[in-house]
Amino acid sequence: CKTHTPTATACRAPGAAPAIFIMESIMEHVAKSLGKSAEDVRIINLYQEGQVTPYKQPLTYCSISSLWSQLVESCDFNARQAAVEAFNKANRWKKKGLSVVPVKFGIGWDGAPFSCVVSVFAGDGSVMVTTGGIEMGQGLVTKVVQVTASTLLIDVDLIKTRPSDVLTAPNNSTTGGSVGSELCCAAALSACQQLLVQMEPGRQQLPGDSTWQQVVVKCFDMGIDLQAKAWLTRTSPNVFNYNSYGVTCTEVILDVLTGEHQILRTDMLYDCGESMNPEIDVGQAEGAFVFGLGYWLSEHFIRDASTGQLLTKNTWEYKPPSAHDIPMDFRVSLLKNAPNPLGILRSKAVGEPPLCMSCSALFAIKDAIENARSEISRDTFFPLNAPATVDVVQTDCLVNVDNFSL
């Protein structure tokens, strides 16, 4: 295949983000055609436990309805919706919009093998861990260290990590699909359990209150191998091993004359199972949402039609989210008491699903545009595609010089 543009590759939630956006756009269109709110249409179309997905996979666990109810209550949606309506009635050139978007995101492990090598050093009892996963800021290494420490019952300060390489971790999967952290943790768990079995003869030769370092020295003196490797490849009869769920509510304010907007508040409730590290997982959810804001609202590629040259090649023309683009009030919570029996240590993946809810910002802007258009009796359905840049939003407000009057 020959092309005059550079090759492209998959990024966060490839395919899933636009597919979910398309379905939510259908909900918006149905709601407008029936004269209902988009939230009312979404509620009656939420999956229920026991239903079967298009992949012929039964939903033995489905928390989406509970998440929706909890978020609507915790973010005070009904009162805020009434306040938005009152604001819009009182203001012609400033409009607010509000949107609630749910997500069901399938997590699949098939075809994603990962390995882990755990080595113990007899001199001081320190532990070196390396996996086939790549740390890219998602907290993979931190979670692997936590799993290693909790399984071996040692302090995290004794553990060091090495980056992945093909000598210690050949034939490992791409780190992606939101599963890298949990599958590397599964491999670390297996390797540590294997190591404890190898060290058991040495442990039995010592009193029960012996320290880790004492057990390590004893095992070394007995000629016991202080290294273990695990190689894990998971298969499932279903396309997905489990589903992650979440619900997000976003409120924006829009300047009808310029198309500029500000995200006033975002509330997210995410089902992360029994989180291995809530601080990392909340940070991942926040980062995924902001990542998506650029995708839906500002990051627009423009190429020369004849040469394929990229014209938006710097931040003067290409606009990733900046400090003033993130929600002014950003509240992310994890669903409590929701262990995932199908996950690693009862957890769930978090890398990609929250991004798919960032389209709530686009739909909130669309709600504000609809309120502006209703002022001139043009409140009919219209598509708002991504990226909904400032100029697109301003144009969709249908501002005309005839609207200006003293």
Strand segment count: 8
Oligomer category: single chain
Mean pLDDT: 94
| Helix and strand sequence | HHHHEEEHEHHEEEHEHH
Global shape? elongated
Largest sheet: 4 strands, mixed
Distance between the termini: 59 Å
Helix content range: 25-40%
- Alpha carbon gyration radius: 26 Å
> Low-confidence parts lasting 5 or more residues at pLDDT below 50?
none
In spatial order, strands of the major sheet run 1-6-7-8
The number of distinct helices, counting runs of at least 4 residues, comes to 10
Strand content: 15-25%
Features:
4-stranded mixed beta sheet; 406 residues; alpha/beta
Write a brief structural summary.
This protein has helices at 16-34, 38-44, 64-74, 77-90, 140-152, 180-204, 212-221, 278-298, 359-374, 390-396, and strands spanning 94-107, 114-120, 127-131, 159-161, 227-232, 242-255, 261-271, 329-334.
